[in-house]
Structure formats: structure tokens, C-alpha cells
Amino acid sequence: MRRERGVALVTLVLLQLFVVAAGAHLLTSDVLTEKAPAPVASAEPPPVPVITAGPVLAAGGNGPLPAKGTLAGRLTEALGDPALGDSVGAAVVDAETGAVLYGSGAERGITPASTTKVATSVAALASLGPDARISTRVVRGSAPNSIVLVGGGDPTLTARSSSVPVYPRPASLAALAMRTAKALKAAGATRVTVAYDDSLYSGSRTASTWKPGYVPEGSVAPVTALMVDEGKVAPGSHQRVPDPSRAAYTAFVSLLPKYGVAVAKPAAKAVRAKASAGAQEIARVDSAPMYALVERALTLSDNDLTEALARQVAIKEGEPASFEGAAAAVVRVLARLKAAEGVRVFDGCGLSPKNRIAPVALARLVAAAASPANPRLHPIVSGMPVAGFTGTLGHRFVKNGSVHGLVRAKTGTLDGVNTLAGLTTTRSGRLVTFAFMADKVPPGWGKAEAALDRLAAIVAAS
Description:
- The chain is of the alpha+beta class.
- It contains eleven helices and twelve strands.
């Protein structure tokens, strides 16, 4: 997982074939439904009616099931690779029926590492919906000519130039400052005091189950409800600021004078203050929609964003926006989906080595996300890295080039842990999901990654 944070985002792979099919359908529909002109007397024979063929693309993923004996034999042999160690679990599930096509230690809880993000993403989309956004606001303070910057928990809020191309497009701190200044000047205020409110989140800023080095090495920032650029000290840097909330506040205050509003320096103890209930909002910016945030979190294996998603679930579900509250809320949502069995989590992103998810539970979560019955969950599929092309799989499957583009999967990496969970269509056209997990991996993570890639390639070729 710590390697995954450095993988650059490549344009997410879209389902172009389905777009083409939809376009073809629209063209043929227009031909058939357009009102015909009134007949005109003519010696010419009547036009031949247009007869359309069937759909350009038939529904996929419902081909015959792979032969269990052949699949089991090949997977069992590959699972014995010494690079995976002696604590390995595997599950292959038919996406349509949920039937287990292959299992080995499939119901035993294994450290999932970053594949925990699949569970968090399912909960976020199911609880909040794909169109939900996270807002950062400025409200009036209790004193005259005072304002409060209120964090809503959006770690993608950026202080960078809006001209930098990023997907999904983040909310801009500069835009918030500009809107704030415009509202203040319209009300006759050109000098204000500014405080910040990051009280939406509660509890510790780092999980008790995290290793102490995660923040210093840059794997994750202290989790706060107010931050810009995921708490990084500079673009492209992994290093994090010690107090993301105060850094965001400082950046916001520095922007106001550029838009004609001077900032009076308050006493240091007054900088952090809770906004009054019902305080008048004077400006706001919103994050990208939830579906795009989930796609980004999965493609980039973004720890900061996934922790924020978990807390948004906690708020929606009426739990404290803490590590404990978020974990309880995620499992509650999964229980409503009848997908909580075999899932035990202590954080949202998977940095906790105490998380446990059974391979069959993880494979079934992916199957739920791919199901036509759960369209709200489909961004999980579109957000998963694509073998040989995007995100944390962009450099993978080097020796399995025949499945480039055919496997979508979420990776997971911690010290001694390597996991891979995703989906593919078999050679016979059956959509299946899988989870391969090892949490006692010998030194040399590269060999374990290659072993997991071979397992996924076997499923794709079955």
C-alpha cells in the first residue's frame, strides 16, 4: 500500500464499447420513430422499410461457467508459490449468482491491506449515494466582521492553480476565498477576523492500530475535517504537514487580501473556534460527486480520501466521525447489503494491520458492485485499476500481457501483506470476481505481486 501512493493517475478507462452500443441504439431508434411524410403520388415503387438487426453488443458476462476441475487445479498449484508464504486465502465467485467457483481458506479472515478500500467504497456509495458532495463553507462569526472557515471533510480541496489538470476536478480554495470576498464586500466589509472550525471529526487524528511511521513517511496525513491537498507540504511531495487544519486556514487567510479583503490578526487562541449553530453561510465550494471520489480513491489507492469517505459514512449513519464510529458505520451499511459477514475493520483505508476480511467476503463485495441490481455501486468497478494500464496496476502483469485490459482489481500492500481483489471475464465470457490474499509474505514483495498477477491471469484464461 505504501508503494501505491506514488502511482500517478492515468485517465480512467471508460466503457467505450457500451457508449458505442448506446449511440448505435439511438441512431436506429431515431430512424424508426421519426414521423414519415405524407405519401405522394408517384410511379416509383414505395421505399423499402428499414429493418434493424439486433443490438450491436449482446449483454456480456453471462457465458458458461468455467470448468471447476480445471480452474481448481491450476489455482491450487499457483497458490503454492513460495513467494506468497504460508498464510494464503483465495476465492473466485460467479458475479451473477454469487456461487463460489473456487475457494481455499476462503472464509478465514486475512489482513486485507488496501483492499479494505473496496468495503469502504461500497459503504460510501450505498449510504451517501453516488451524487453526494462534500462541502467546505465560510460562515459569519459571532462577532462583527468575523468569519469562520468550516471544514466539511474534503481532503481533495486544493490550494493549487485551477489550471492544473486533475480528475476529478477538486474544489478550489481560491474560489472559496474569491466568493467569500465578494460576499463580504457586498455587505460593506473589507476587513475581517478569521477563525476555522474542524470539529466535524472527533477522536484521534491517527488510528491506534496504525504503525507510528505512517504519517512521518507520508503514507497518510493526520485525519482532520479541514485540509488542502491531502495535507501535503508541496505538490508531488509525500511529506505531510503536522496540522492539516491550521495549514488550510493559513492558506485561506493568505488568499483573502488578493480579492480585496484585509485580515485582522486575532489572538492565537481565537484562530480555532466552533461555528455557531445556524450561522449564516456566505460562501461554499463542493467536492466532486461521490462516484468520482470513489473512483479516485480506488485507482490511486488514496488513503486520505478513503478515510474521509469512511467518516462521511459515519456522519450519515449517525455515528461519531472517528475511527471507531466510521468502522461501525461501514459494517452497518454492509450488513444492510447482507455483505458484512467476514468483514472486521479498524480504519477505512486498510493501513491497520488488525483489519480482517475473508477472501469470499471480499469477492462477494466486488460482485455486489458489479451487479445490475446495484447501479449505485458501479463506480467501484470503473474506479478499479486496469491491468497494465491504470493506477496501481499500471506497472503490473508484465509477464501476463495477454490479460492487459481484461482484469480490473484493487491492490493491497503492507509489510508482509499482498492482496488483490477484482473481476474479469473468463475466456468463455463469464463475469467472475476474485480475491487472493496473503499476509505472511516473505521479504521481496515484488515476487508476491507477480504470483497474485498469475492467479488473476489464470481466472481470466479459464
